TrEMBL record, chain B:
Pfam families in the cross-refs: SBP_bac_1
Superkingdom in the source lineage: Bacteria
Record SUPFAM superfamilies: Periplasmic binding protein-like II
Record's protein name: Extracellular solute-binding protein
Length: 293, 522
């Protein structure tokens, strides 16, 4: 302790930050068990036990809402998670530095555009006079109102979020890729390993710890789909496939200023997320030896 | 164990990066940006002490100036300095909730969402019954007794907790048609359903915008089947800005979204949709796409606010210089008593939090001034010897001295704290604001007035929906209405939808609405 005092001093502001802004707010979760009143605060609001949880879980469309949440999240995981890994690997093979840089920039630019704008772009692209329906017409098809057909909704959500985030998420992998010792590749070349063999035997194994950590973190957020995107894309005609926990909470809690309900759902999501994280971590430790803690 | 340690090191870089990302983009600015205005007393330009309070208004379309002769004028008249604040609409409710939660609530504010009911039920609002009569007699007298009764019925203890915004008489919404399109297809303004459909068909087939392309949308609406009130209203359905209201059917209040008339209206709209007389993208139109279609010379008939039609008109003129607008009457449907819903009490203007009780006399005196004759002159014409002069004891307005900015600053919504508007007031301001176009607006008002009707659910507090978000947000109605109109569900399934609506809390809400209706009409 005394020897490294300067390190402790340096760590102190960070720890304080976590304590103040990450742990103290957790205490606010108690309002999930209260009828929280904005004027009386946490201290004077009446306690109601599990009333709000009961209210949420007796919602008549809960099954639909949960199914939509889980399905979209699953698709995001299955299709959305590997996308940045693949992009990073592909970018890594680009030899011309300026070309790689500009590609990378182009890929991560959409990250900085808000969902409201991306929603507008997608609505426009997929409208009757949009580019996509222009192509459909070229090939002699009947134009389709993609955004109001339930069967396309989830694909559009998953594709658009891949498009938006793939470049940004790839940055971490690209950083990890630069950390691989080049002598490994030299040795492999000498041993006669081709590009593909190098990829499967050197690059991927070296990347595995990063991938696993990010996968575990992603699993911990399994129920967090991001309200903004769905809210922007959702229209009454796609409620049946797109109404998720977040949009439900928006109607049931936020619009009515009912903070206790929103907190209850948030708490529920955190508990599910934590459980999944713990299970995922356990499985990962047993199978690949990688784990968060 | 050793392996674990090495792993931790090898992913160290990734974690550092990730943490950076989380910190960098995780938390957006959520907390207050209300500025530094406080309720302390300042001094006016004569050095006298003036009282002041913070006044949170609905969104204001201009940058609020720090200093202006208008402020000095109002301070010199009232001795009170109202410090204006505002938030934009898109996150108004959230921002207001944030400042309430942080205890930084202004002394006078415009509630939104369910905040008014939250404050009333949780005891955060100041009861104004006696205060109004004592400190704001003009305001008190201006509103008819029925209005105060409705305000009283919005709280359990029957007290007055807010000052409503009251738009009386003026027909706020109207059917708006392209007069030049009608001329181009050689037709008259339709007055019956059959004529109306014929006009729409002509708009579809006869290239009324004369660009050689079949790109016309005879009529269009917005996501959630909104802003097509007239086509529901023809069948006697109470719709307000696309949301079903409540109306008396067989002596009981009933949700307009489940009445038999609604079924007929949906069947009619389905026909329009199938025939491509209704924009087939209606259910994807956000307000800006809808506006863009109208303003780019694509739409023949729509339903909107005449008072705002001048912006549409100005933009339309840039695309098609021949564009003309005209107000159309509500088409008569045989066997139905059609009307256009009007809600003079659609909005709540101001509340005073209990914590600001000591400011109440000051605030009410301030509000009361806006009901005086000099305040009306100021709101409409500005300052004497600036934008008007006195000639033979009469006001002579000098339009060339006036600017849009001045009009907006002194007018309805910015400085003006008036909450009671009648036809007379709108006609006067329309003349100033809209120039020659005011004739068109007045024509729209005249045409719509005979069909406008105050609906029974006007002034109903939204607390009747508490606990039933799917009913209150009209989610069930919007989902099914859209399905019926595009034909995904046959209209014969209407009864199943009604059952679903009732089971999802509709019955409970109906009960509460009827209780409120009894109370407000005592």
């Amino acid at each position: 302790m005394r020897k490294h005092w300067i390190l402790y001093v340096m760590a102190f502001p960070g720890l304080l930050w976590f304590l103040l802004f990450r742990y103290v707010p957790v205490l606010g979760s108690v309002i999930a068990f209260q009828d929280f009143q904005i004027f009386n605060g946490i201290g004077d609001s009446p306690w109601v036990g599990f009333k709000h949880f009961e209210y949420i879980f007796t919602y008549s469309n809960l099954i639909d809402v949960l199914r939509n949440t889980l399905l979209i999240s699953l698709y995001q995981l299955v299709f959305g998670f590997p996308a940045p890994v693949i992009l990073a690997l592909m970018l890594n093979e680009v030899r011309k530095k300026w070309f790689k840089r500009s590609l990378q920039t182009l890929f991560y630019l959409p990250h900085f555009i808000s969902w409201v704008i991306i929603g507008g772009i997608f609505f426009e692209l997929l409208s009757l006079d949009g580019i996509v329906n222009g192509l459909v017409r070229q090939f002699g098809g009947e134009p389709i109102l993609f955004m109001q057909q339930p069967e396309y909704f989830r694909s559009i959500v998953v594709l658009s979020s891949i498009w938006k985030e793939v470049g940004w998420s790839a940055i971490i992998y690209l950083a990890a890729l630069t950390g691989i010792n080049p002598s490994l590749y030299e040795a492999a070349t000498v041993d006669g390993a081709g590009k593909w063999r190098q990829l499967t035997s050197i690059t991927l194994p070296s990347l595995l710890p990063t991938i696993m950590i990010l996968l575990l973190l992603r699993i911990g957020n399994f129920l967090e789909l991001g309200f903004e995107q769905i809210y922007v894309f959702l229209t009454p005609l796609t409620f049946s496939v797109g109404d998720i926990l977040d949009t439900y909470v928006f109607r049931a809690g936020v619009l009515e200023g009912n903070y206790s309900v929103t907190t209850a759902v948030g708490l529920f999501k955190s508990v599910v997320g934590f459980t999944m994280l713990w299970v995922g971590n356990y499985i990962s430790r047993k199978s690949t030896g990688e784990s968060l803690y | 164990m050793r392996k674990r340690v090495r792993n931790v090191q090898s992913v160290g870089m990734a974690i550092v990066l990730l943490t950076g990302l989380l910190i960098g983009c995780g938390k957006s600015n959520a907390v207050n940006e209300t500025g530094d205005q406080t309720g302390e007393a300042g001094a006016n330009n004569k050095g006298e002490q003036v009282e002041s309070f913070r006044f949170l208004k609905a969104p204001i379309s201009i940058e609020i100036p720090g200093q202006h002769p208008y402020y000095d004028y109002v301070i010199s008249k009232t001795g009170i300095d109202a410090k204006l604040e505002t938030f934009p609409w898109n996150d108004y409710t959230q921002r207001l909730q944030t400042i309430i939660a942080s205890g930084d609530i202004p002394e006078l504010f415009r509630p939104a969402g369910t905040i008014d009911q939250t404050l009333i039920t949780q005891g955060g609002a100041l009861a104004l019954d006696d205060l109004l009569q004592e400190y704001a007699p003009n305001l008190w007298k201006k509103f008819p007794e029925e209005v105060w009764n409705k305000v009283r019925a919005a709280s359990d203890d029957g007290k007055i907790y807010y000052i409503p915004k009251y738009d009386s008489d003026m027909p706020g919404r109207s059917i708006i048609m392209r007069k030049d399109w009608l001329e181009n297809v050689g037709m008259e303004v339709p007055t019956t359903l059959e004529e109306y459909v014929e006009v729409l068909k002509a708009f579809r087939d006869k290239d009324p915008n004369q660009n050689g392309q079949k790109d016309e949308l005879p009529t269009s609406g917005r996501e959630g089947a909104r802003w097509m009130d007239s086509m529901f209203g023809m069948y006697g359905v109470a719709m307000f800005e696309g949301y079903p209201e409540w109306q008396v059917v067989d002596g009981q209040m009933m949700y307009a979204g489940i009445t038999p008339n609604m079924k007929e209206a949906l069947a009619f709209l389905h026909m329009l949709y199938k025939e491509k007389l209704l924009d087939n993208e209606t259910f994807l139109n956000k307000s800006d796409t809808w506006n863009a279609k109208i303003q780019s010379d694509k739409v023949g008939v729509w339903f909107h606010i005449p008072y705002q039609a001048n912006t549409v008109f100005d933009n339309l003129k840039k695309v098609n210089p021949n564009a003309e607008l005209i107000g159309a009457p509500l088409p008569k449907v045989e066997g139905y008593d059609g009307f256009i819903s009007q809600k003079p009490l659609a909005f709540i203007d101001y509340m005073i939090p209990k914590a600001a009780a000591e400011y109440a006399p000051t605030i009410l005196k301030y509000l009361d001034w806006w009901y005086s004759e000099e305040a009306e002159t100021f709101m409409i014409y500005g300052l004497e010897n600036d934008t008007w002069v006195k000639e033979d004891g009469k006001i002579k307005y000098l339009p060339e001295k006036d600017t849009q900015e001045k009009m907006t600053l002194r007018g309805n919504g910015t400085m003006s704290a008036l909450s009671y508007y009648d036809t007379d007031f709108f006609e006067k301001t329309s003349e100033l604001l809209h120039g020659e176009f005011t004739n068109v607006i007045q024509q729209m008002w005249e045409t719509a007035r005979p069909f406008s009707r105050f609906i029974e659910s006007d002034g109903m507090p939204n607390s009747v929906y508490n606990g039933f978000g799917d009913i209150g947000s009209h989610k069930i109605y919007q989902e099914y209405a859209a399905k019926f109109i595009i034909g995904e569900l046959p209209i014969e399934k209407f009864d199943e939808y009604v059952e679903l609506w009732k089971k999802s809390g509709g019955d409970e809400v109906t009960k509460k609405v009827n209780e409120w209706y009894q109370k407000s009409n005592q």
